[in-house]
Structures are given as structure tokens and as C-alpha cells.
Please model this.
Amino acid sequence: MKPALHKLALAVVLAAAAAASAQAQDSVDADRLLEQADAVRSTDPIRFGAVLDEVNERASELSGPQLQHLRLLQAYRLGYGGQYQGAIELARDVFDSASAGAIKFRAGLLLANSAATTRDFSLALKSLEETIALPDDGIPSELVEQAQLVAGVIYNQLGQHEKTLQFASSVQQMEAASERSRCFASQLRHEALANLQPERSGERIPQIREAIAACDGIGEAVASNLMRINLARSMAAQGDRTGAIAMLQAHADEVGRTRYPRLVAEFHSTLADYLLIESRLDAASMHAHAALEASHNNAHSLPRVTAYRVLYEIALVRNDILQALDNYRRHAEADKAYLDDVKIRELAVQQIRNEVQQKDQAIALLSKQNEVLKLEQQVAKASAQNTRLLLLLFAVVLAGIGYWAYKIKRVQMAFRRQAQTDGLTGISNRRHFRDEADALLKRCSASGKDAALVLLDLDNFKHVNDRHGHAAGDWVLMQVAEACTAACRDGDLCGRLGGEEFGILSCGGDIDAARRIAERCRTLLAAIDTATIGHAHRVTASFGCTTASRSGNAFESMFTDADTAMYRAKGSGRDRIVVHGDVATPASPVAPFEPSHG
Model:
């Protein structure tokens, strides 16, 4: 019996050893696959997805840390596919459940980055702050570099390009920074410089080419092609639009393989815009639709605004009026969503500054309160003189509280003004103009007065930006706002309703008053001296007018009729005034900005 027992025991031991060896080998294989997926997640999305699916099939065999690593990679996959909310939820779960270490640190960075993409800047900054506060034991230096890059991305989304430039430059100056970190730092740096110094775009072309080559060398197609868009814009600004189109078209397939929605949408919308200018309508239409498809989950993106505008102008060239109207409506909706998003970002920056100021004020008040408590203890043992000193200090504290309350009220009033005015021109923005117009029309109706609405849209304004830069375009818009304001009477409303569209509402004005306001504004526009920006032509606009007696007292009906009249002015040759219900008549000739491409 004993030999048999020995043999049985030996067999059990060998089986256990074999099982342990197989389990250990499975664990090694899982780690290898996870590392493979991590290595190609931003360079080869197809391979990344395939390896991730392979690991997912073995999820039941993974250890706790391996499972956390897998879930983190799944969150990356959702984010790369444009499913940002899913990426946020999964990254938050990994961050909350993972122990301190590289996986938790990476989950926090992904959460911050994804939140910034969805414009939840409060969550983005909070997540970044919590991540940076984690213990740095076992955190690779590359993750510290990534934390600075994520901070740069967040502040870039907020429009704080100076801070973005600081973070990107900090990474580039690190001697031990990885090639991947240097690549993305270069992309952020050139994007920030494009916003901060657009007039120097030509000088940066050799540097952008060098940075693209470095990113191509390590297979980071997302970063290199984001910079190619920047390069194309710089080339176009220098007059080489044909070269910009050829360069972008040569990398269209590569961009599509990245499957990164933001890159794909921005790439195709830029290419569509340039092809339209070159009158290559079929190609422009194809790329505009590709941009819309890539940005369907992001209604407030600038590529959607550009794509619908391109399709609108193509429809006009082809004389497809119904399609043009539909595309114009979609363009207006996308433009409004984009402008609203810009306001959200501006308010987010102001809110962050306000929170910092409130914290400083709270600290100051706490410090004062501590001083009061100390003095109260002294008063209990001191004489009447100490009592008088305490009362004096209490008065100082009350004065301080009153002062800070006054300051906070001033800040709140400043926020209100910022929410109601256009940041560039200083006149009412679209939302505030609409609210004030409703109230003014009610007062006019109650008092039995008529009301006149004048809408104007600058003719061929896009060519000013294309030829002279956005700084020149902004200067023209400010001059136009001054002209519109000067054309108003006391009590009239004046506002910027869109990119280059303005409106004036006058209570008590009949249709003749509307014509006079429009003609006065047209005269003031023609008097703008464009030589200041090196432009050889004069400023003109197309005007549409109506009154409450013709369109009804509702603002929407008046706006629709005036907008239709303005569109008729555009269609009948521009630089003229059309009244709702009348036939468009030519205005006295004034040289437009540039000849239209259709």
C-alpha cells in the first residue's frame, strides 16, 4: 500500500506544479498582450482594438491589477472613438477603485482630458488636481510629462493659450522627456502659437515641418496630422493654397486610419474650405460631408460650422436654392452652438478665477476672525481700554466684510455684462439682443407704436480674413459695430447676431425710418478707411428691413422677414437695401471687399 500512496502523492504534486506553471504562463501572456495594446493605442488603432479584444476574451483569467489595466485601455478606446461620456465614467471608476500607482495616475489623466473634451472644465481641473496630488512612488517620469501635456490640453480648450505654451515648453525642455511626449508637446506648442501669433505663421513653417517629421518617425499620426492642418493654414496664409491642398490630400487615408474624430473632422473641413475657394466643388462637397460625419457627436465644433458653410456656398453656385437654404439653416445652428460653446469656455475661465479669488477672500476673513478670537480672550482679562480696542477691531472686520461684499458684487456685475455683450465689439450679443428685443417690442405694442428691424450682413467678409488675417477681420468687425451704433437713435437696440451679421431694432420707427437707418449705416460703412489694414476695397453690406406693422409684433416673425429680405439683397448683387414686401433695387455703387467665388 505504501508504494501506491507515494505514487499518488507524487502525481498530485506534479499536477499542482503543472497548474501553477500554466497559471503563471497565462499571467505572463496577459501582461505581454496588455503591454502590446498600450504600445500601439495611439499609433495603430486597428491593432490596438484587435489586441484589446483578445485580452477581453480572457478577462476571467486576469488578476486584479491586470483587470484594472484592461479597463483603463477600454476607456482609452472609448475616448479615441468619440464616446467621451463612456470614457469618463470608466476612467472615473478605475481611478476610484485602483490603488495608488501608475494605473490610477493614468486613469486620472484620462478622466481630466476626456472631461475637457466634453467642456466639463470643472471636472477636468478637479481630476487633474487630484491626480497630481497622488503619491509619486512608482510613477514613471513619462507620466509626469503626460500630466503637463494634459494640463496644456485643458488650458488650450479654455482658450488660455499662454498657459498651454508654458506647459508644452516645459516638457520640451526636459532632458529625459520621451520622444512621444516631445511629439505631443510640439503639437500643443504650435497650436498655441497659431492662436497667439497668427501674423507670424509663415515664420513657423520650417519648425512645423521638422516637428511633423519627428512625430512621423515614431508613428504618432494623430499629432503629426494635427500639425499638418496647422501647416496647411500657414501655407495658405502665405499664398500657397494649392500646395496646402496637395499636402492634405496626400495624407487623407492616414488621417482616416487614426479614427480620431477631432482630427478627422478638422482635417476634412479645412480641406473642404480650400477646395471650395479653388472652385473644386465636388471634392469640396465630399470632404465637407466627411467632416460632418466625423463630428456628429460634437454639435458645437468649428468643423461643423465650416462644413455647412461650404455646402451652403456650393448649393448657391449650383443654383440649388432649397438646398442652399437648408444648409444655411444648419450652418446658422452650428455657428450658434459653436459661439455658445465659446461663451461657456469664457465663463469657465471667469468662474475659475472667481473661485480662486473667493478662496483668497475666505482665507483673509478666517485670518481676521482668528485675530478677533485672540483679542476676545485678552478682553476677558483686560481693562476698559482693551474693550475699546476690541470694538475698534470689530469695526475694521465689518468694514473688511463690507468691502469684500462690494467687490464680489462688482465681480458678479462684470460677469453679467460679459454674458450680455459680444467679446470683440462690445455691443449686445445675439442672446441679449433677442431678450431686449422681445421686451422692447412689447412696450412698443402696448403704446401703439410701430417698430423697425434692420439686419445687415457684410459682403464677402471671408476674403478679408483669408487675405489679411483674422486680426484684420476683427478690426473691421469693430469698425462696423461703431458704425451701426452711430446709425442708431436714442433708445434703439444694436447687436452682433453672428460672425459678420448685425441687427438694429428701433421703437417708433416706420418703414421709412428703417430705410433711413439702413442708408445711414451703409454710408458709415463706406466711410471706413480700410487702408489701415492694407485693404484696397471699401466695406459694404447687404441690408434687410421690416416693421412690426408688416411682419407682426413677434420678434421671430420680424427676424425671419428681415433675414429673407437681407438674403434677397445678397442674391440681387449685394451692397443694397431690401425691404420686406418690396422689390430689391440696386444701391449706389460701392466697391466690395473682393469678387465673390460664387
